[in-house]
Specification:
15 helices, globular, 14 strands
Length: about 400
């Protein structure tokens, strides 16, 4: 017997989308709701349980091009992330299959040094897909019943970003940073309770896999006499990130990098090659992430340390680059700000020396320009040229009177 199809959108009848039968035709509940909106101009924006309009589904190459505008380098991670995000939202909004096949959710684990762009990748994707994103630090999370922040509170944050719209929150993105900081100490389970390590990992399992979770509407701890909101996490994309310092040694041991005996060559980093792209689930287990959690983070993308050349590109190339931001600040006071190439390299080198990654560039820029910006209102009509000595030796920049303003 042929399955019923909506005469308007061709969707198949489901329990969540029942049909109304007519004279040989059918219309689904979703189409009835859409027709009502068209006829009566009903704005269902603040609905807490109804359907939501599909997002603009970008193909992987379009997502990659957007990431290129804001994130320098990290080509492998951008490609992996573009495909994963496309498949995730295709799964949600193109789910009317002709058979009973269902596609499970694939969450993502980003591994890379501090300041390599993990958070920026997630923020950029959420911005251009127009979905809410909540960013949490795993180190602030504790098991229920302990002082700290309940794991469920990250769902409260997502709901707040979605302006209280549960349907919109249920298709959002949650980014959990510093995942490596909740690794348990060693592979053996501890006899005592682990408040911020394995216990948090266990608490994350339920919401990451996909389940209906009761959350306090305004966050905080749960107590029996309060009302709860229910959020289904099956369509929330979880992106977890961490530096995982020292995991290279675990990978190298697995590969037999450190061999003993005469004539044995240390194969690790023979040509300063990174082994991060060779990471496997067993390496993460050895690091201290429980196997159950690894099994729910199906896609792993690794980010490489940022080179000096990439750091200079980060300063000037992205659409919202730091150099462009400071040039805009100076322009408001009718002052032109310029940087010599060696000055940009000096800023980049300082960030590398401090091991802060790209996120340390702003503080270095602020330190170098603070005295100049103090005098900025009095420099109207000048061009200010930043040299290497300004960055390294705190000397004054070159001031040139703009002839157009004379």
């Amino acid at each position: 017997m042929a399955r019923k199809k909506c005469s308007f959108c061709n969707s198949i009848e489901k329990q969540k989308n029942p049909f109304i039968a007519g004279n040989g035709v059918y219309i689904c509940s979703n189409c009835v709701t859409s027709a009502y909106k068209i006829l009566f101009g009903e704005d269902n924006k603040n609905s807490t349980g109804g359907g939501v309009e599909p997002i603009t589904l970008l193909i992987p190459k379009e997502i990659h091009r957007i990431l290129d505008d804001y994130v320098i380098g990290q080509e492998s991670a951008k490609k992996t992330l573009s495909v994963a995000v496309y498949n995730h939202y295709k799964r949600i909004f193109k789910s009317d299959y002709e058979d009973d096949t269902t596609i499970d959710k694939s969450n993502i684990l980003l591994i890379g040094p501090t300041g390599s762009g993990k958070t920026l990748l997630a923020q950029t994707i959420a911005k251009f897909l127009d979905v809410p994103i909540a960013i949490s630090d795993a180190t602030n999370l504790t098991e229920a019943g302990y002082v700290g922040e309940d794991v469920e509170n990250i769902l409260t944050k997502l709901l707040q970003v979605a302006d209280g719209d549960i349907a919109k929150a249920e298709r959002g993105i949650i980014f959990i940073d510093e995942m490596d900081k909740i690794a348990r100490m060693g592979e053996n389970r501890s006899i005592t309770r682990d408040v911020s390590g394995e216990g948090v990992q266990q608490a994350l399992l339920k919401i990451i896999e996909g389940s209906v979770v009761n959350i306090p509407p305004k966050g905080g701890r749960k107590h029996p006499n309060q009302d709860f909101l229910q959020i289904d996490t099956k369509n929330i994309l979880f992106i977890c990130g961490g530096a995982f310092d020292g995991i290279e040694e675990i990978i190298e041991r697995r590969l037999g990098a450190n061999q003993l005996g005469f004539g044995q060559e240390k194969r690790s980093n023979r040509e300063n090659e990174s082994v991060m792209h060779l990471i496997e689930s067993s390496d993460l287990v050895h690091y201290g992430i429980i196997p159950e959690l690894i099994g729910r983070l199906h896609i792993t993308a690794t980010l490489e340390p940022i080179t000096l050349e990439d750091m200079v590109r980060i300063l000037v190339e992205p659409k919202n680059s730091i150099v462009k931001q400071y040039q805009k600040l100076f322009e408001i006071d009718n002052v032109i700000l310029s940087f010599e190439e060696e000055a940009l390299k000096a800023i980049a080198q300082k960030a590398i020396n401090r091991k802060t990654g790209a996120r340390g560039l702003r503080s270095i820029m602020e330190e170098s320009l603070i005295d100049i910006m103090y005098e900025l209102p009095e420099l109207e009509g000048y061009e200010v040229i930043i040299t290497e000595d300004v960055i390294n030796n705190s000397v004054k920049p070159i001031y040139i009177k703009n002839s157009k303003s004379a």
